[in-house]
Amino acid sequence: MCLGVPGKLVSICEQDGLPMGKVDFGGIRKDVCLAYTPEAQVGQYVLVHVGFALSVIDEQEAEEIFSYLRQIEAAAQSELPAEPESQSGQSLSPSP
To answer: Most buried by CB count within 10 Å: which residue of 1, 40, 53, 75?
Structure first.
């Protein structure tokens, strides 16, 4: 199973003969290959997996995926075990 992450296309250029784009993932910008999505335009959302835009999606679909990702994160956080403590009540985790 693979996970595609939506991001907003902020610029397009050509690099070594390939269409490339700068994609914003919530403030983190990454270079993404647009070879599979030549129709993508600046301002649109693309679904990205391992550095390749696999499809163009609309803003509503991107927001729906963001919502699912937030739910997964919240569920994972609630399942984390409490930090182990010694019998003296001190944390057993190494200090930073």
So the answer is: 53
For the CA atoms of 70, 36, 19, 10, the dihedral, rounded to the nearest 10 degrees, stands at -30
Q: What is the pLDDT of residues 35-71, one digit of tens each?
A: 999 999 999 999 999 999 999 999 999 999 989 988 9
Domain 5-76 coded CATH 3.40.50.300: no
* Other beta carbons within 10 Å of 86: 8
pLDDT of residue 91: 53
DSSP state of 85: B
Count CB atoms within 10 A of the CB of residue 20.
Answer: 18
Q: Which residue has the tokens 């609630």?
A: 78
Q: Where are the alpha helices (DSSP H) in the chain?
A: 59-79
